[in-house]
């Protein structure tokens, strides 16, 4: 079916296979560096934006907004959080809450008890003052675009160097 002239033609089309495999092996390393860098930069931008958007009554909640970076052998996890386990104010502020909840939670959360006693009210609703998800939505689209661009550049560089 194939003569020797066709075999030579096929071999010519597949030249550079070693270089191709070398370049393909370099892609995960190059992309991993770009992804990690962009995730950390995006998290920094989101933390800064959330701190701008948070309702500043005392400034304590803004001080608790932070990122945590955990690196594994072949993974990275970037977590952005607000508040801590002893103060649910971040959730209450983001989504709103009933004032009655402050008295029910007073034993567990002293800052809530202090606020409830100052207001003297056990009824009503405090509206939401979202800061976390608006910051996320403002940052995520540009971050995804930059991430795609950085991955593309990393793949091109790995292919050229391979």
Q: What structural class do helix, strand and pairing data support?
A: mainly alpha
DSSP summary: helix tally: 7
The arrangement of helices and strands along the chain is HHHEEHEHHEH
| Major sheet size, sense and barrel closure | 2 strands, antiparallel
Low-confidence stretches: none
Radius of gyration: 27 Å
**Strand order across the largest sheet:** 1-2
Helix share bin: 55-70%
What overall geometry do the principal axes of the alpha carbons give?
Answer: elongated
The percent range for strand residues is: 5-15%
pLDDT average, as an integer?
78
Strands, count: 4
- The CA-CA distance between the termini, in Å, is 36 Å
Summed up:
The protein is mainly alpha-helical and 162 residues long. Helix content is 64%, strand content 10%.
């Amino acid at each position: 079916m194939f003569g020797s002239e066709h075999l030579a033609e096929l071999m010519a089309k597949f030249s550079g296979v070693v270089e191709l495999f070398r370049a393909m092996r370099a892609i995960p390393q190059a992309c991993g560096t770009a992804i990690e860098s962009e995730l950390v930069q995006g998290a920094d931008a989101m933390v800064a934006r959330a701190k701008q958007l948070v309702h500043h009554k005392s400034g304590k909640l803004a001080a608790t907004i932070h990122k945590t970076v955990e690196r594994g052998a072949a993974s990275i996890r970037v977590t952005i959080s607000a508040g801590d386990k002893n103060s649910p104010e971040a959730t209450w502020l983001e989504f709103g809450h009933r004032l009655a909840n402050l008295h029910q939670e007073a034993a567990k959360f002293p800052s809530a008890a202090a606020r409830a006693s100052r207001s003297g009210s056990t009824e009503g609703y405090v509206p939401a003052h979202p800061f976390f998800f608006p910051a996320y939505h403002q940052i995520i689209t540009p971050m995804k675009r930059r991430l795609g661009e950085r991955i593309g550049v990393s793949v091109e560089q790995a292919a050229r160097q391979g």
